[in-house]
Every structure is written in C-alpha cells, then in structure tokens.
Amino acid sequence: MLETDFQIRKAQFSDASLLTSLGKQTQLETFMKDNKPEVMNAYLEATFAKEIIEKELLDSHSTYYISEYEGIPIGYFKMRFDNHKENELAGPKSTELQRIYITKDKKGMGFGKKQLIYSENIAKLLGYEIIWLGVWEKNLNAIGFYEKNGYVIFGSHPFLFGGELQNDYLMRKTL
What we know:
The chain has 175 residues and is of the alpha+beta class. The protein contains 5 helices and 7 strands; from the N terminus they run βαααβββαβαββ. The chain has helices at residues 16-31, 37-47, 50-58, 111-125, 140-148, and strands at residues 6-10, 62-69, 72-81, 94-102, 130-136, 152-161, 164-174. The chain has a 7-stranded mixed beta sheet with strand order 1-2-3-4-5-7-6, with helices on both faces. It is globular.
C-alpha cells in the first residue's frame, strides 16, 4: 500500500448520505452477530438516519472524518469537542472520539490505527490533554486494540442500544 492510496478528509454536509450508509454498514458488520435484529435496526434508525447525520454535521461541537483507500470510502470517525465530558474527566481538557470504524473487508490492514493516530493528532493540535471513548464491554477486539495503543479503562456507563441497555467501558489516553 502506498501512503498516497490512503487519505483522511474532513466530512462536508454533502457527505451525509455517505456517512449514513457507511455508518449502517460498519455497525451491522461489527454488532449484528451479538444483537437481535430488531434491536440493531432500532439503533440504526435512531442513530444513522440521514437527517440525524445532517444535524450532527451542522453541530459546531462535532466533526466527522472520512477515510478513503484508493478513492473508496472505507471508514470514518467522529470527534466531539468541548461539550461532552464524563465526570472523571472534568478537570483536564478532554475530547471524545465518539465513533471510529473501518469496513470489515479492510480491518487488520492498519487503517484503524491510522485513524486513531490522526484523531489523536487533531486533539493535540487543538490543545486537548486527553482523548477518550466508549467501547461496548463485549467488543473485546476493540478493547484490545485500544489498550495496545495506550488507552486505559477508567470507568463505564450504560448505553442505550436500540432500546436495549448495554454497558460501555470508558477508555482514555493522555496525549
């Protein structure tokens, strides 16, 4: 893979449909095997409807980024700035990496790590001291990935997934 074959770009409002389909695809690939179809569908409709994504794209406290390989979208991540802090992070200036996904066919190729590093660099450039995220307690692959990249669990919180209460670990990294 040539470095020029992979790039990350800031999403624009015109990317709402792309983010909707990419979001649904990566969520299904990641979570369908462990969730009931009706719960999965409820979550997708509540979270990845085009109107919801458009609203998020207009929110000055959040930014989406799209990853492309050979010009084809293969992943995305979303960062939340300045308005969403867990109690344990009230002191240091922190930002949330709210979503970070790569399509199933591109997992294990280093693209997720590139996205993670890119998000950390954005946070550093903006003066944040900590980057944090929530990860489903049953998503052991993701937990291992984050731990391998310097993130530590500092708590947990309930997460409503399609009407079903689940638990997310909260993980953070000092930048």
